[in-house]
């Protein structure tokens, strides 16, 4: 895909050191170590890598890195050797002045470090303040993890804290979903193909559906999930970012800021949600999960209807649903076109509408569902699906891509302050609903009430577990509705 540029005429200064707070935590084990190894292997990364944690030493950090790479099937001894050679360690507390003095000494001649805050958001303030006081923030960039706040007011406070030390151009709010190849392909497909533009509006689109389904439950993370829920976990970030890509206007240029401007304008045009536009659910047995409150009011499923107040999308509903313990694990976008204005063939069964389907996970494909005549004397038709599959397994892992981009100062795949706050503004009115979530059985598509969000003439599109590639030259039946 064509590379967007950071705003400005000169290339940003590359980072010359990488510091990650929370070096012994789960995020470092699951994502950061494999990402750093991938950058060393693929991009010849030579930056010093400094881990900071309350406990341990350099030997223990190297062993942790070895275990992480082994767990992720990264067995090249040369990569591990190079990673070990670049690793350094600072032992100390996130709120201790002496720790940051030692960090500044460990940075040595580095003048443009990249700090990764792989720590709880509650600790950001103390770390950012001490980075500034110790001069570790001079010329530096900072990566912060989602969730970026718990609501609109919290996000604004967090932004204000960051801005006491870092200007916006040096803040990288990471959402790994934006680094996924299928999501970038969705952006590319939108603006690299002119044939979409005449139909990509309210004159031709009847509705848009986004489904993010998981078969898994909270998988031992009940204590974390019970403080988050589906809206905070995936809707405010992953799904609304996907909606912005689907519905935004074309960027005015090739810069990252041009792209992010259009994302903000789209999200800023979405009306705040009302309680009657939201259906919350909770799978049976959730309250028995370890770490979950016995009277938990947290949703593990949500379905909602968005309204976008723009000339292009006025009157087109955007239906969103996400949840755990659903029948399949898949993420799909379906753009349903309006039906023909007149039924030329007077079929016994009304013709269904054409639609475009973007499959994002677990496999990646783009398809168009159309009608074609059935063999025989009658002028009856059937749905067929024209599918373009994409090769999987060759894409750069999201964290590797995003850390590499941040080190180069490329903001294109990171959320900007105004975009984050616009997304929180949309969901803020429904974050603390007092009505208990509706129960649903594991392996079903959530509470029955979610069907009521869709007009009676329509239904939710249901993804299938996998979408097998058809034989060359053949069409296949599309995924049916319930």
What secondary-structure arrangement, pairings included, does this model have?
Layout (H helix, E strand, L loop, with lengths): L16 E5 L4 H18 L5 E5 L4 H14 L5 H10 E5 L5 H11 L5 E5 L6 H10 L7 E5 L6 H12 L7 E4 L6 H12 L12 E9 L8 H4 L3 H19 L8 H13 L9 E6 L17 E7 L9 E7 L6 E8 L17 E7 L3 E9 L7 E9 L8 H10 L9 H11 L10 E3 L42
Parallel strand pairs: 1-2, 1-4, 2-3, 4-5, 5-6, 7-10, 8-15
Antiparallel strand pairs: 7-11, 8-9, 9-10, 11-12, 12-13, 13-14
Strands of the biggest beta sheet: in what spatial order?
Answer: 14-13-12-11-7-10-9-8-15
The topology string of helices and strands comes to: EHEHHEHEHEHEHEHHHEEEEEEEHHE
CATH T-level topology of the largest domain: Dihydrodipicolinate Reductase, domain 2
Radius of gyration from the alpha-carbon trace, in angstroms: 24 Å
Q: Look at the structure and name the CATH superfamily of the largest domain.
A: Dihydrodipicolinate Reductase, domain 2
Overall 3D form: globular
Query: What is the overall number of helices?
Result: 12
Q: What percent of residues are in strands?
A: 15-25%
- CA(first)-CA(last) distance: 36 Å
Please outline the major beta sheet: 9 strands, mixed
Into how many domains do the coordinates divide? 2
Helicity level, as a percent range? 25-40%
Sequence stretches where pLDDT stays below 50 over 5 or more residues: 470-477
Report the CATH C-level class of the largest domain. Answer: Alpha Beta
Tally of DSSP β-strands: 15
Give the CATH architecture of the largest domain: 2-Layer Sandwich
Derived structural class? alpha/beta
Provide the residue-averaged pLDDT. Answer: 90
């Amino acid at each position: 895909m064509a590379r967007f540029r950071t705003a400005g005429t000169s290339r940003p200064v590359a980072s010359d050191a990488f510091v990650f707070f929370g070096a012994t935590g789960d995020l470092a084990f699951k994502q950061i170590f494999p990402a750093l190894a991938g950058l060393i292997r693929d991009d010849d990364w030579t930056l010093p890598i400094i881990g900071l944690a309350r406990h341990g030493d350099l030997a223990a950090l190297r062993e942790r890195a070895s275990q992480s790479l082994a767990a992720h099937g990264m067995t090249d001894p040369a990569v591990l050797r190079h990673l070990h050679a670049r690793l350094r360690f600072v032992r100390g507390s996130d709120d201790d002045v002496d720790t940051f003095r030692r960090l500044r000494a460990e940075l040595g001649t580095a003048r443009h470090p990249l700090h990764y805050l792989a720590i709880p958001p509650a600790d950001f303030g103390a770390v950012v303040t001490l980075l500034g006081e110790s001069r570790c923030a001079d010329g530096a960039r900072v990566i912060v993890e989602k969730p970026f706040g718990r609501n609109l007011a919290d996000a604004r406070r967090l932004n204000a804290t960051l801005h006491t030390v870092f200007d916006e151009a040096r803040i990288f709010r990471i959402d790994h979903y934006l680094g996924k190849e299928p999501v970038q392909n969705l952006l590319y497909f939108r603006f690299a193909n002119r044939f979409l533009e005449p139909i990509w509006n309210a004159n031709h689109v009847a509705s848009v559906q986004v489904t993010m389904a998981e078969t898994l439950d909270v998988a031992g993370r009940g204590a974390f999930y019970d403080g988050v829920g589906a809206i905070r976990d995936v809707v405010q970030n992953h799904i609304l970012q996907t909606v912005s890509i689907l519905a935004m206007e074309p960027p005015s240029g090739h810069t990252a800021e041009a792209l992010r401007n259009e994302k903000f304008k789209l999200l800023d045009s979405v009306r705040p949600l009302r309680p009657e536009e939201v259906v919350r659910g909770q799978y049976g047995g959730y309250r028995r999960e370890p770490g979950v409150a016995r009277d938990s009011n947290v949703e593990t499923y949500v379905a909602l209807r968005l309204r976008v107040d723009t000339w292009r999308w006025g009157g087109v509903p955007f239906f969103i649903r996400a949840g755990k313990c659903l029948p399949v694990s898949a993420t799909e976008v379906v753009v349903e076109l309006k039906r023909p204005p007149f039924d030329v063939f007077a079929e016994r069964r009304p013709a269904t509408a054409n639609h475009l389907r973007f499959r994002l996970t677990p496999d990646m494909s783009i398809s168009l569902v159309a009608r074609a005549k059935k063999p025989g004397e009658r002028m009856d038709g059937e749905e067929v699906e024209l599918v373009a599959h994409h090769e999987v397994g060759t894409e750069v892992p999201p964290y590797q891509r995003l850390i590499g981009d941040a080190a180069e100062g490329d903001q294109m795949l990171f959320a900007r302050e105004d975009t984050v706050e616009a997304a929180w503004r949309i969901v803020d009115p429904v974050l603390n609903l007092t009505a208990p979530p509706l129960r649903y059985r594991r392996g079903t598509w959530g509470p029955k009430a979610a069907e009521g969000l869709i007009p009676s003439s329509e239904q939710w599109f249901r993804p299938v577990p996998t979408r097998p590639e058809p034989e060359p030259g053949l069409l296949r039946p599309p995924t049916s509705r319930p």
